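A reminder before we start the practical. When you read a complex entry, don't treat the lines as separate problems. The point of joint prediction is that each chain is placed relative to the others, so the output describes one connected object in space. Small molecules and nucleic acid strands, if listed, are placed in the same frame. In the example below there are two entries. Take a minute to note the order of the lines before looking further.
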Amino acid sequence: MERKTKVNAEDGKQEIVITREFDLPLDLLFKAYVEPEIVEQWMGTKVLRLENKPHGSYRFETSDPQGNVVFQASGVIHEFVADRKITRTFEMENTPFAAQLEFLEFDALTDDTSKLNMHIVFRSVELRDQLLKLPFAQGINMAHNRLQDIASKLR
Amino acid sequence: MNLRRDVFQAIADPTRRAILLLVASQSMTAGAIAGNFDTARPTVSKHLQILTECELLEQEQIGREIYYHLNPKKIKEIAEFIEPFLEMWDERFNKLETVMKRYQSRDGKKNKS
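Here is the predicted structure of the whole assembly.
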């Protein structure tokens, strides 16, 4: 099955574009980015703060089942136009990765479908490429952790 | 040439991706490959050089001609490597869609009652 999400990472550029068409009306798609309790559900992270306005800030935190914080991300919102766009920075805390700039554009395709265009600008080409590889590394880690879980249960 | 050739960067270019697709079905000479593009021959040669340097393409001498063919091992490596990033976002957005559909139907019922 073809994926509905597309990632475009052009050669030597410090940016990527992620596009996705949703089987959702525009207002619902936008709402998924605005309501903290909804963001928590699909991002799989806790939303500590989410101020949807220019100069507002946001902060996400993810903990493992033991309650240890494993991921923290935060940023500020520069532009916020309901059902149209969000411009914000995003930074993973306590990592070597620099802050990135995100341009999120929301468009209605039909009454029941919509599209998200996410344009991310990184500090450098190298950083972008490293970040693209990150889920790969994490995937290996996660598989490893799962293995450890299973192994510890066997004991 | 000191520039580190990243496989990832190699496949990020649309022309190079097109070359890989072209060569996927059969081994071809540089001339035959260039014949499929409007781009100047030296540009295509440059792309072939990059693809060869990062081992996505392999050269094979047959008679007086050099044929290019895919290195399936390397292709598999990159396919697996970019995949998790795409998968991560695709899964996230699938989740978003599911969450919002549930929200929509719940909301719809609320409005009707």
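Discuss with your neighbour: The first helix of chain B runs from residue 7 to 12. What might explain this?
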